[in-house]
């Protein structure tokens, strides 16, 4: 028996102390790009992501739609493996069939439709925006535009009619369809518009260009998409059927694989890594995990892992700590693994990125994780809240929620993630099945999260994640100051009492 000489700490238990902010520390100068896979020190990782956020390998999170939307924001998604091999391969090839670039709207809706009907149409067509015409056809007079942003539960009643939400047509510029996209976007900027309808000579509505697409286009930076403008996509795998699953995923176009297990410090992960390296060389990068200490990091690094995920028991839907007494506070786990990653890089000249997975309950926890040295972050609950996640939107007591369940719950029964080496079923649960408050489209919230991360880095005098990690000054938070902060948040959230 050995007892570590430390207290297991969560990300919640740290705050950042500002450093000097200099003239070059502006949001425009902050570079959030991160390496995704191993590389030699001093060289660039062969795969980088523009925004260091990746979606969890979970059935309630990473659908093709989520993966594409996240890639459009500069992040990266992993299609889950708790499904037959052909179904997962189909999802991967679905993502690869989409070409990155500007998305146009071709849905036309009658102005008499209710917002609920429009929401249904948009969801079915996997679109965010639709045009409203007077007779509901592309030939009708163009009246306005409606987007999924209008369905944000806090802002609008679902029973409002489209007409009451339409933007006045005079605020829109109508352009000839032969104009180039760059010209269209220049017009959007000049006229300070969010959208630009493109209309054919016949007066028929052809397409719509969104300002947001233009902004997202600028964040692609070639790291998130390879030369044929296809989105990059990841896929989860397990340590059981990998000899059949992995070749099928590679054929379907998966760019990166990740062995998905609640406890990655096992000979089964080493065998899977060695199979991939033996069969496919360095052609197909593969991550491993999850681990919570330096020993496990080194074991998987030596076995060939291209990145390593950190975190056991910290997931918002996870009850592994209660069921098995296994885990470690996410901050303590990161500090240990980051130290081993850096020591490994110094010894071998090979840098293996690490991914902080779970235990991130708010945006500032992400900033703490980057300050502690994670290269990128995997999120489940955060992404499950959005329109783009594959789960049902439900109304409970007048409020909208999305379903969200753990892979170790009875609902997912992902036995290959929690397998104890016995029969192929879950003996006991390690995850819960619940709901998360609906938060509208991914784009708005991710944009906000990015802005917060940049603001934190600016306060800490850093314009790159590496500099942020090297310069960060952190301080542990006392229990008393944690309680005071929580009380202040509750005070801010309480509606003011008119009687006082
Ligand atoms: P979170 O972002 O919801 O806090 O955590 C997501 C992470 O929790 C996943 O990436 C995965 O590592 C982990 N997870 C998924 N299912 C379970 C479970 O059922 C779980 N226990 O812990």
UniProtKB/TrEMBL annotation:
Keyword Oxidoreductase appears in the UniProt entry: yes
Organism: Micromonospora andamanensis
Catalytic activity: IMP + NAD(+) + H2O = XMP + NADH + H(+)
Domain named CBS: residues: 166-227
Gene3D superfamilies named among the record's database cross-references: Aldolase class I (3.20.20.70)
Cofactors required: K(+)
Tree of life domain: Bacteria
PROSITE patterns per record: CBS (PS51371), IMP_DH_GMP_RED (PS00487)
Record protein name field: Inosine 5-monophosphate dehydrogenase
PANTHER family tied to this protein: INOSINE-5'-MONOPHOSPHATE DEHYDROGENASE, INOSINE-5-MONOPHOSPHATE DEHYDROGENASE RELATED
């Amino acid at each position: 028996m050995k007892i570590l000489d430390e207290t297991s700490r969560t990300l919640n238990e740290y705050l950042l102390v500002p450093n000097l902010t200099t003239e070059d520390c502006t949001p425009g100068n902050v570079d959030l790009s991160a390496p995704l896979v191993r590389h030699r020190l001093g060289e660039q990782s062969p795969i980088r992501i523009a925004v260091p956020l990746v979606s969890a390998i979970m059935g309630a999170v990473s659908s093709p739609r989520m993966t594409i939307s996240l890639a459009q924001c500069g992040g990266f998604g992993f299609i889950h493996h708790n499904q037959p091999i052909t179904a997962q391969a189909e999802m991967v090839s679905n993502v690869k069939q989409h070409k990155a670039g500007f998305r146009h709207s071709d849905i036309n809706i009658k102005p008499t439709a209710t917002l609920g009907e429009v929401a249904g149409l948009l969801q079915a067509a996997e679109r965010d925006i639709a045009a409203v015409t007077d007779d509901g056809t592309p030939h009708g007079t163009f009246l306005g535009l409606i987007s999924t942003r209008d369905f944000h539960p806090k802002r609008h009643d679902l029973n409002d009619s489209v007409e009451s939400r339409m933007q006045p047509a005079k605020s829109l510029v109508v352009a000839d369809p032969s104009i180039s996209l760059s010209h269209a976007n220049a017009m959007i900027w000049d006229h300070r518009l969010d959208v630009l309808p493109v209309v054919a000579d016949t007066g028929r509505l052809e397409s719509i260009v969104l300002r947001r697409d233009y902004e997202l286009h600028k964040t692609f930076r070639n790291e998130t998409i390879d030369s044929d403008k296809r989105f990059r996509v990841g896929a989860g795998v397990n340590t059981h059927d990998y000899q059949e699953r992995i070749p099928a995923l590679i054929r379907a176009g998966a760019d990166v694989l990740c062995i998905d297990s609640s406890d990655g410090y096992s000979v089964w992960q080493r065998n899977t890594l060695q199979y991939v390296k033996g069969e496919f060389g360095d052609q197909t990068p593969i991550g491993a995990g999850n681990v919570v200490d330096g020993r496990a990091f080194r074991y998987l690094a030596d076995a060939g892992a291209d990145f390593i995920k950190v975190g056991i028991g910290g997931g918002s839907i996870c009850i592994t700590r209660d069921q098995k007494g296994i885990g470690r506070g996410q901050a303590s786990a990161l500090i240990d693994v980051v130290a081993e990653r850096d020591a490994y890089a110094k010894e071998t000249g090979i840098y293996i990125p690490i991914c902080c997975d779970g235990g991130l309950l708010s945006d500032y926890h992400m900033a703490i994780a980057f300050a502690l040295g994670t290269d990128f972050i995997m999120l489940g609950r955060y992404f499950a809240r959005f329109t783009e996640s594959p789960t049902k939107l439900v109304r409970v007591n007048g409020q909208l929620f999305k379903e969200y369940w753990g892979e170790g719950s009875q609902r997912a029964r992902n036995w290959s993630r929690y397998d104890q080496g016995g029969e192929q079923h879950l003996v006991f649960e390690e995850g819960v099945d619940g709901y998360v408050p609906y938060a509208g489209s991914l784009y708005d919230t991710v944009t906000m999260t990015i802005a917060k991360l940049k603001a934190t880095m600016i306060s800490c005098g850093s314009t790159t994640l590496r500099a942020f990690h090297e310069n960060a000054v952190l301080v542990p938070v006392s229990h008393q100051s944690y309680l005071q902060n929580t009380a202040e948040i509750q005070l801010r959230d309480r509606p003011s009492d008119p009687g006082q």
